[in-house]
Structures are given as structure tokens and as C-alpha cells.
Amino acid sequence: MSTPSAPPILDFSPIYGEDGEAKTRLVEEVRKCCHYNGFFQITGHHVPLELQRRVMNCSKRFFDLPLEEKLKIDKNLNSFNRGYELLRSQMLEVGTGPELKEGLYIGEEIPEDHPYFLQKKLNSGPNQWPQAVPDTEEFQKTTMEYYRAVFELAKDVLAVLALTLGVESSYFDPLTAGAVATMRFLHYPAQPKDEDEILNRGIGAHTDFGCVTLLLQDEVDGLQVLDAPTGEWLDVKPVPGAYVVNLGNLFMRMANDKYKSNTHRVINKSGKERYSIPFFFSGNPDYLCECLPNCRESGEDAKYPAITVQDMVTASYKESYGRAEKYKKEMETKKMDELPAVAAVGA
Ligand code: OGA
Ligand code: NI
């Protein structure tokens, strides 16, 4: 992989089959991707296409709601990161404007008497469901059915990652038991063609915080991965039914930087609205992330001290949201009462 190459599309089905050689080849492909930039796409997994279609339909139904309805479940109304996130709330890339995306944060249903809620664990609390969405019952059912299906897939991906490290496929069981994951319905409005590309990002260049991300894209492109050696941005083509899998900062840290958490961004230049559903797998909040087996050359030290999933992910969130807040305050003090214009969507 010396010339810049977009993330390969890997058939994941050998993981579920009996063909040992095919499985070994897949594990080898995944290992190469982890060393190169930590990105690959997978087909042949167990999440049904039909369920993916239903959940995308839920996402669109949600974003079609009037703003006042969406704001009733504003995620700023709770401390556990569930609910609606307005356009321009987050800012991941220094030197760009707040981002042209809106989102709905969903996770495991954690009632208020659950130990995770009581102990204020990462993103843990009841989901904030929109009341005005057509067929609310189906909306919640499909969303959670999809969440659980992708959670299972994340466990399968971690089992393969364990194999790439030369350890048992069950190695990450203590990380996946009681794991916290966040799913986001995302909507990127169409950016007008002549808008300033430097300032306007669907998502600015960033790396993901957690262990591993599984992303479902619709048919509209816009996701790009940085080829670090050349500085080139590579398009991650939407493939129907496939997941874009990428490692996050936490995994890179555990792998002593041998595996990569790579920079990526979204610029929606298509002229169309874009929808995607990333699933961020953080892990059990109390899991202690230490240097993984076989990630050190002989005599090499672990680069990082051990840290819990909880501490690592909380610190990353604070940083990125702090940046957006600071930017907005600066804009206010400059008496610029309006941020750069955005395409009116569904208005
Ligand atoms: C993210 C992300 C890509 C996309 O949410 O971290 O990189 O296509 N999303 O929405
Ligand atoms: Ni990302």
C-alpha cells in the first residue's frame, strides 16, 4: 500500500464461516489496513440491508420535523449526551467554521435507576425520543433494533482485531461487556456550490475518539480520508449495505500507535442532502486501556500510561465542543450577528 489508496472493500463473511484459509486472509487484510490508516469497508456482515433501509428512513423522518420539534429534545437539556444537536454545534478543525450538520444522539436505553446513570458514566441515560415523528413506536423500535445489530457487528470487528494482534478472538470481551456506544443520525444539508470550502465543513478534519467506528452512509458521497504521506484526500465511496470501519484514538493508543486512527472529514459538495449513521464504540467505561499484546518491539516501552475508557473519551469531548463555544463567543464579540449563510433545508 505505498501509493495512496482509498479504503478497500473487504468481504467479512469468512468470519462467520468454516473456511480457515479465507479467514486467515481476511485477518491479514484487516491487519494491513490497521497499520496503513485504520480504515476499511466491510460487506458480507450480518446487519440486514432491509434494516439499514428502515433506519435510514427513521433518520430522514426525524430531520424532516420542524426545528421547534427537534429542539424539544435538544441534547443541551441533559448531561448525558442524548438527543438533538443543532447545526453548527461542533467544531473539530481549527481554522474552519462550525459544522454544517445536525444530529440525533442515541445509545443503549439507560433508565434513571441504572448504575451507569447513577454513577454518571459516559453518555449514559434515557434516550430522548421525538414525540412528533410519524409512527413514534416504529421509530423507537427500528432505531433500537438497528443499534443492537450494529453493536453485535462491533463485537465481531473487535474479535477480528484481536486476531490481527495474534491473540484469542475473545480478548476484548472485558471491553465489550457493558460497553457504551453512541449512535448518531446525521444530516448534512446541501452546501451551495460557491460556498467557501475552507470555512464550511460537514465535519472538519478529525480523528474519532473511541475504539472503533462503524459508519453507514447513504448514496451521497462526501466522506474523505487523509493520506498522511502525500496530503491527498481520498474519497470513501458509498457502497450499498457496506460499513466504513475505522479505528479511533483509543485503539491507536492501546496499540502503542502501531495501528492508526486516521484523519477524515466530510464536505458535502454533491448539491444534495446527505445522511449517515456513525456508530461509535467506546467500550466498558471502567475498562483500563493498557498497551495491547504484540504492539511493542523488543525492549520498547509502552508510550502511554493506562487510562480508563471513561477518562479518555470524556477529555476528547470537552476539547471539541469547547472549540465551537469559543468560536461562537468570538463571533459575538466581533458583533457579527450572523454566521455564514447555509442552504435552507426543509424550511
Ligand atoms: C463522524 C464522522 C462521517 C460521516 O461522525 O465522526 O466522521 O460520513 N462521520 O458522517
Ligand atoms: Ni469521524
TrEMBL record:
GO molecular function: dioxygenase activity; metal ion binding
Keywords: Dioxygenase, Iron, Metal-binding, Oxidoreductase
KW rRNA-binding (keyword) present: no
Fe2OG dioxygenase domain span: 179-283
Pfam families from the UniProt entry: 2OG-FeII_Oxy, DIOX_N
GO annotation terms (biological process): small molecule biosynthetic process
Protein family per UniProt: Belongs to the iron/ascorbate-dependent oxidoreductase family.
Protein name per Swiss-Prot or TrEMBL: Oxoglutarate/iron-dependent dioxygenase
Native source organism of the sequence: Penicillium frequentans
Lineage: Eukaryota, Fungi, Dikarya, Ascomycota, Pezizomycotina
